[in-house]
Amino acid sequence: MAIDSFYELQGIIKEEENTTMKKAESLLLSLIKKHNLGSNKIKKNTTFLTIQQVTKAGAFIGSNRLKHMITAMMELRLDNPNNIYSDRYIVFTKHRRGDVGKKLYYNLSTTGDVEYDRKRYQQDMALRKLQSDAVGQIHDFADKFDKLFNNINEE
């Protein structure tokens, strides 16, 4: 099931039911949870793909309860936000069943297919490993440095 957008639908429910945004959110989240668990006429567990708005600064619009209920949060980003033609990538900022923070570059072909740039992903992963190794070496060196100078102070 797809919802575009959660915040807009929440606003519609607020108006139609003459209630608060918080109550409208609760109604939506209860419905989603019910269908996730298969408590519906067809007894099928239902997954929801929900589009959620963000502020111009990229901050999530929604409550902490909404964030908590979400299994994964995926953001579509541009390498250069000021250039709509720059490379596009997906990044998970929350993912209970997968990796977070890894850039997955993609391209939308003219046929409507999504092409993923596997080579670029592998390069990004190699770069992350190099960065992690460098940080580890810096920490090791700092520990040795601290031990050396701590011994001098004790003498």
Short description:
This protein has 155 residues and is α+β, with helices and mostly antiparallel strands. The chain is built from four helices and six strands.
Give the class from helix and strand content and strand pairing: alpha+beta
Strand content: 15-25%
Kindly state the number of beta strands.
6
The helix/strand order is EHHEHEEEEH
Report helical residue fraction. Answer: 40-55%
Q: State the strand order across the main sheet.
A: 3-4-5-6
Q: How many individual helices?
A: 4
Summarize the biggest pleated sheet. 4 strands, antiparallel
Distance separating the two termini: 70 Å
State the low-pLDDT regions, or none.
Answer: none
Given the C-alpha coordinates, what overall shape results? extended
Descriptive account of the structure:
With 155 residues, the chain is of the alpha+beta class. Helix content is 46%, strand content 19%. It contains 4 helices and 6 strands. It has a 4-stranded antiparallel beta sheet. A two-stranded parallel sheet has the order 1-2. A hairpin with an 8-residue loop joins strand 4 and strand 5. Helix 1 packs across helix 2. The mean pLDDT is 87.
Characteristics of this structure?
155 residues; alpha+beta; four-stranded antiparallel beta sheet; two-stranded parallel sheet; 6 strands; extended
Topology:
Layout: E1 2-4, H1 6-17, H2 21-36, E2 49-51, H3 64-69, E3 72-78, E4 88-95, E5 104-108, E6 114-116, H4 118-154
Parallel strand pairs: 1-2
Antiparallel strand pairs: 3-4, 4-5, 5-6
Helix pairs in contact: 1-2
